[in-house]
Specification:
296 residues, alpha+beta, Triger factor/SurA peptide-binding fold, Chitinase A, domain 3, 2 domains, four-stranded antiparallel β-sheet, three-stranded antiparallel β-sheet, 12 helices, 7 strands
């Protein structure tokens, strides 16, 4: 079940994470999904929102990685909405209006339009995004009812890290950690990532691919129990410890108990990922902007 957040914040979240922005007349498209175009105008609109939320400018490499990830999310959204339409989901104007009213805390149409405009969006933008959200919920429910998830859907890692801004300090901490000093104590005393530092640098379980590219690449190369040399990302210098790992395709029943519990709690999301993977396998997807195509 998707938790809704009242007010314009919920609408912005839905627009950025779930649906593509509508109302664009541009014929310049970045991708085509089963004949349906994702225009550059809608792509750029959402990217600018993400850029603003991330705090400003990114270096070219990071910006390109974010853009590629965004396009994949938009392709998934298009596939989900197409599938929901095909299966007869209620994506009617009435259903969208009802959900929109719920998101806005029961506000009247005039208030809703005023808040949407103040957020720099249009009513058409938001209604398209809410429609895609309804489609996502419909397909997620269908996927969960049909899918028995028994294998890990992608590689998950349990990682700890130490984050510092100075390369020399990172090298010093790496030497101390590899010489046998307690990693958790070093993280608690030195890491600028205060959220994880209070737990000895523990980042918990997550798909390795969820991290920024430099961090993910370094973590992916580690063996369990191994510590990485300092690796730089947009956030600073990281020293990474791989505590545990569960490979994609491995049996969930053989995974550590805490990961099993996490995957069980997110079972409907995993089912949706598998459902969308099959939609992708059957789809005709064209990357019209080759710079945004997945790397070989």
């Amino acid at each position: 079940m998707v938790r809704t957040i009242r007010g314009i914040a919920a609408l912005l979240l839905a627009t950025v994470l779930i649906g593509a922005v509508a109302g664009c007349s541009s014929t310049d498209a970045v991708a085509r999904v089963n004949g349906e175009e994702i225009t550059r105008a809608e792509f750029d609109t959402i990217y600018e929102q993400i850029l603003a939320q991330s705090g400003g400018q990114l270096d070219d490499e990071t910006a390109l990685a974010y853009k590629k990830q965004l396009l994949e999310m938009m392709i998934d959204s298009a596939l989900i909405t197409q599938e929901a339409e095909e299966l007869g989901a209620d994506l009617s104007e009435e259903a969208v209006t009802e959900r929109l009213s719920q998101l806005m805390g029961g506000a009247d149409e005039a208030t809703i339009e005023e808040q949407i405009t103040a957020a720099g969006l249009t009513v058409e933008d938001v209604r398209k995004s809410v429609r895609d959200q309804l489609a996502n919920e419909f397909i997620q429910e269908k996927a969960a009812s049909e899918t028995s998830v028994t294998v890990v859907p992608q590689t998950y890692s349990q990682l700890s890290h130490i984050l510092v801004s100075d390369e020399a300090l990172a090298n010093e901490l790496y030497d101390r950690a590899t010489d046998g000093e307690d990693f958790a104590a070093l993280a608690s005393e030195n890491s600028s990532d205060t959220a994880s530092a209070i737990d000895g640098g523990n980042l918990g379980w997550a798909p390795t691919s969820d991290y920024v590219a430099e961090f993910a690449s370094a973590a992916d190369a580690l063996e369990v129990g191994e510590i990485s040399e300092p690796v730089q990302s947009q956030f600073g210098w990281h020293i990474i410890l791989k505590v545990a790992e569960a490979a994609e395709g491995s049996e969930i029943s053989e995974a550590p108990a805490d990961l099993q519990a996490m995957l069980a709690a997110g079972g409907s999301e995993i089912a949706l990922q598998q459902y969308v993977a099959q939609l992708r396998a059957d789809a005709d997807i064209e990357y019209l902007d080759e710079s945004l195509a997945p790397s070989e």
